[in-house]
């Protein structure tokens, strides 16, 4: 069983998937949003190919923790995705993940074009990694 991590954007969606033991997160492609019909087909194929049983979507909260326009759009997308796939969706606070992703890419000496193309995928990896790590930490607390 794997977990899918998503960094939602109106045009591009960064994707990451856990390993079967849910220890690590690996980047997948950046998905370019098309039509609802094509998007549903893509995500259904992705779920089947990777045996995904849970989805984690980064929630872009404001720095004060409130929800703005982006968070509401993300919620709408997550609701749609959950209903299409009949899978649970968990939200994960993604504040500053894009900044982290860009910083990692700069450290790797990625060119500006490469940074632009990879930031969504790397953000999805950070979201999923943080979520998986939190779950492991919480399971040790009980």
What features would you describe in this structure?
- There is one protein chain.
- This protein is of the alpha/beta class.
- Helices cover 51% and strands 24% of the residues.
- It has one domain: Nucleotidyltransferase, domain 5.
- It is built from four helices and five strands.
- The protein has a five-stranded mixed beta sheet with strand order 3-2-1-4-5, with helices on both faces.
- Helix 3 crosses helix 4.
- The relative contact order is 0.22.
- The model has no long low-confidence stretch (mean pLDDT 88).
Structural class: alpha/beta
Order of helices and strands: EEEHEHEHH
Mean pLDDT: 88
Percentage of helical residues? Answer: 40-55%
How are the strands of the largest sheet arranged?
Answer: 3-2-1-4-5
Strand coverage percent: 15-25%
Report the biggest beta sheet as strand number plus sense, adding barrel if it closes.
Answer: 5 strands, mixed
Distance between the termini: 22 Å
For the secondary structure, the number of strands is 5
Oligomer: single chain
**So, CATH architecture?**
2-Layer Sandwich
What is the class in the CATH system?
Answer: Alpha Beta
The number of helical runs is 4
Please give the domain count: 1
| CATH topology value | Nucleotidyltransferase, domain 5
> For the record, what is the CATH homologous superfamily label?
YqgF/RNase H-like domain
> Rg from C-alpha positions?
15 Å
**3D shape:** globular
